[in-house]
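TA notes. Do not distribute before section.
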Amino acid sequence: MEKNKHTALVLAIKSGNGDAFAKLFSLEFRNVKFFAHQYLNNMEQAEDVAQETFLSLWGNRTALTDSSNLKALLLTIAKNKSLNVLRLHVNSKTDSLERPEIMLNIKALSSSYIENQIDATSLSEAIEQASKELPEHVRTSFNLSRLENRTYEEIAKIKGITVKSVEYHISLALKHFRRRLAQFASVAIVFYFFSGCFVL
């Protein structure tokens, strides 16, 4: 979703717009339920968690800001609610063969990997927006390098410019991404979006 449309949706939900909330529900409910089901292994519980997740977001909508990432926020709420379900469940399965599996799911859901995955949801959207902000001639050089794995010499021939110009374009693009994505600097995520060619 484009940044302006996403911001408008966030602000509409914050103001109590039921239609905007219904739109978010239709867009993300299945994703949230699927996320919960991966760890709960119970579709009914996953659906309950998904519904509670949306109710929680709605109940706390006034805390939203225009920079809130709704998808990442929903997954964070669903993660915490799924953990609550698993922790309650494991206590009732002290002598059950299910207990080790539940413990593994609690460990997986509590891991930094999940946090990074949720951060990556925000990151991918931020990358898409940051890419759109680049001047066309810089973006095309960057995409040829990172997405098509072209050498600087090949890009220079394709675009009819010097290798030095290509180097300058790539340098500008990387500086732009580092500046725009500084909030993700603590997340150890390789930019697989760009064929693993650089890291924040």
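Switch to the second chain here.
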Amino acid sequence: MPRMNRKLLTSLFLFLLLTGCASYRLGSMLPPDLQTVYMPTATNITNEPLLENEVTSAVFSELQRDGSLSPASENNADTQLTVRITGYDLTPLSFTRDNRSEPDQYRLTLTAEVELVETESGKTLVRSGRIRGEDEFPLSGDITQAKRIGLPGATQDLARVIVATITEAWVE
């Protein structure tokens, strides 16, 4: 290949590489004045007891892992995150070979609504309808045990989606 074509291709490649990364930013995408969040215990309107504790704990862990918003007390927070658990669904995915009416794998789906409010002004910064988190798992034991097996994965997935929703809403 002639030397001129190599230079042209190299220049074109560098141009495309640099312009492709032009909007990429490291660190938090939140405005600089939003650094902390208060989250009261999630509200659970499903018939499944104690989900609010599991979801609240998972969201706190995910906030700490993400690092965009640091958990804070109600009096010291820039924002308040409200989570309302609206759905809990356990769905059979596959059935045993011997008995087609006996499930051997399930999907647990949690649904929630989220609102992030600036504490000083009371302004809603992010409001999101149906956010879903789910986990698929094999049946082990009875249905009660199956629910306990699937809950940690579903709450972690829901927490990941919640934190992404409130921290990535700021992408320009």
